[in-house]
Design a protein that fits this description.
The protein has 273 residues and is mainly alpha-helical. Helices cover 53% and strands 5% of the residues. It starts with a helix and ends in a 6-residue tail after the last helix. It comes from Lottiidibacillus patelloidae.
C-alpha cells in the first residue's frame, strides 16, 4: 500500500519530497507495528500518540511538522481523513525570524584546512565547490563533467535546481583550481563530475558522511555561503540568482541575527574600541 501511495499519491513531486515522505511513513509504520496495528487499521489516537511520542523524544517542531504533513497526505490518499481530525501539533517557529546555522570564519577555515591536509583531491574539490557556490547537496551529486566549463581566467557551473530550474554559477579561482586538479587525475570515462570510491556517481549519503567526519553538516556550507553574501551587502536579487531560491523571503532570513551574533554583541558590549 505504501508503494502505491508513493507512485500515485505523490505523482509530480520531486524525488527528494518522495524520499522524505517515504522515510516518514516507514517510521510511522514501524511505530504502529509496535503499537499493535498497521497502515490499514490505525486510528486517530494512534496518530496523536505518535506525534506526542516524537515530541517526548525531543524532535524539533520542524521535524514533527514534516512528519505530520506526510501522515496527512497519506491518510487523505488512503481515505482515512477521520484519523487526522483535531490533532494537536507543536507550532513551528516562524523561520523568517531565525537565521540558518552558518559556520563562522574559524570553523570554515578549519574545515578547509583539515580537508586539504588529507590530499584527497576529490574531497577537496567537493568541499571547496560547496563552500564557494552554495549549491544544494542533490545539485552537487547530479553534476556531470559537461556541467562545468573552465578556462584560464573564468569558470562556470550549470546547475539544475528545484523544479528543474536551471541557473549558471560563476566559479572563482579556488573552485576552478580544485576541480581542475581533481579531473587531471581521472582516467575513467564516467560522465559524473564526482565519483565514489567504487568509480560510480557519488551518492548524497557519501557526501554527508564526508562532512560529518569533520563535525559539520552539508547544509551548513550552503547557509554559510548565502549568509556571507548577505552580510557583504550583495543585492538580494544577486543572492537569489546564485542560491536558486524562488522566493526572496527565503533570502531575508539569512540577515537575521544568529545566537553567535547575540553572544558576541553582549561579550563586547563594554569593551573599549
Amino acid at each position: 500500500m505504501l508503494q502505491q501511495f508513493l507512485e500515485n499519491g505523490l505523482r509530480g513531486k520531486s524525488n527528494t519530497t518522495v524520499k522524505t515522505y517515504e522515510h516518514a511513513i516507514l517510521k510511522f509504520e514501524e511505530w504502529l507495528d509496535g503499537a499493535g496495528t498497521n497502515l490499514q487499521e490505525y486510528a486517530r489516537t494512534d496518530v496523536q500518540q505518535y506525534l506526542n511520542y516524537l515530541a517526548s523524544r525531543d524532535k524539533s517542531a520542524a521535524t514533527i511538522n514534516k512528519i505530520w504533513n506526510a501522515i496527512k497526505k497519506y491518510s487523505r490518499w488512503a481515505g482515512k481523513e477521520e484519523t487526522i481530525e483535531d490533532i494537536n501539533i507543536i507550532k513551528v517557529k516562524d523561520f523568517r525570524n531565525e537565521a540558518p546555522k552558518a559556520l563562522n570564519r574559524n570553523e570554515l577555515n578549519r574545515l578547509l584546512r583539515e580537508v586539504d591536509r588529507t590530499g584527497n583531491k576529490r574531497d577537496i574539490a567537493i568541499v571547496t565547490l560547496l563552500s564557494n557556490t552554495g549549491i544544494r547537496l542533490y545539485e552537487l551529486v547530479s553534476l556531470n563533467i559537461t556541467s562545468i566549463e573552465i578556462s584560464n581566467r573564468k569558470g562556470n557551473a550549470k546547475i539544475i535546481g528545484k523544479g528543474n530550474r536551471e541557473r549558471d554559477i560563476p566559479l572563482n579561482s579556488e573552485a576552478r583550481r580544485t576541480i581542475t586538479r581533481y579531473l587531471e587525475e581521472r582516467t575513467d570515462s564516467e560522465i559524473a563530475l564526482f565519483l565514489s570510491n567504487r568509480g560510480k556517481r557519488i551518492s548524497a549519503r557519501s557526501v554527508q558522511h564526508l562532512l560529518e567526519k569533520y563535525g559539520f553538516n552539508v547544509h551548513a556550507l550552503r547557509h554559510t555561503f548565502i549568509t556571507n553574501l548577505i552580510r557583504s551587502g550583495e543585492d538580494i536579487s544577486v543572492v537569489q540568482a546564485l542560491s536558486g531560491h524562488a522566493n526572496a523571503d527565503m533570502i531575508l532570513r539569512y540577515s537575521a541575527p544568529t545566537l553567535y551574533d547575540k553572544q558576541y554583541a553582549l561579550e563586547n558590549l563594554y569593551i573599549e574600541q
